[in-house]
Amino acid sequence: IGYSFIVTFVILKILDVIPGLGLRAEDVEEDGGLDIALHGERAYVGDGAD
What we know:
There is one protein chain. The protein is elongated. The chain has helices spanning 2-17, 27-32, 34-39. The relative contact order is 0.09. It contains three helices and no strands. The protein has a domain at 24-50. It is mainly alpha-helical. The protein starts with a helix and ends in an 11-residue tail after the last helix. The chain is 56% helix and 0% strand.
């Protein structure tokens, strides 16, 4: 289990350093909705649950 954790951690850190392959979306994209940022359309219409 320790080996798997270390190798996975190293792979994720390498991917996080490469431009364009980050593990997280930009804050602006998250605020606007990832469905719009990735697919160019809104998946759900409405304000959501309050």
